[in-house]
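Render Corrinoid adenosyltransferase in 3D.
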Amino acid sequence: MAQKIYTKTGDQGNTSLIGGTKVPKNDLRIETYGTVDELNSWIGLINDQLNSEEFRNELKDIQDRLFTIGSALACDADKEPKMILPDLFLSDIQLLEVKIDEMTAQLPPMKSFILPGGHVTVSSIHICRCVCRRAERLAVSMQQHDLFIEKLVIQYLNRLSDYLFVLARYTAQKLGAEEVPWKPRTGPANI
């Protein structure tokens, strides 16, 4: 017999961390790993949209790292030493840096801020970047509220958002989409 997806245990607004500790569904830890989960879904969407051998495995590896981060965030930190969870490594961050540098070497230098857009795939990558920045802000908020979070998680999310920005630019170039520079309006308002 198949296991049911619903348990009804969350009907009162609580959920359990890995380890069994009950917390409200709006707990900062839940909000953070929920945002990482949202980011993972966006990464899946851009991987489907890119449909590129160049990035297919790279993006799947990023999704794997995001599951690793999610499992760490979903864990009761007091019980975590007793559990075997996947790890995030400094080499994961360094790999993102290598990929950023490889793509950047093929792009024209930026002379201004760039408006997100130009192609649906490029726009999707920019949305993904914004969700990643939100996950990063929430992770920093956890740190500031003295909730345990590995420093590598914050570093990885920071570097991943940089990677996604460069990927958006790189994808725009590959698709022949125009990069629209932001030209700030100056002067008096026309009322």
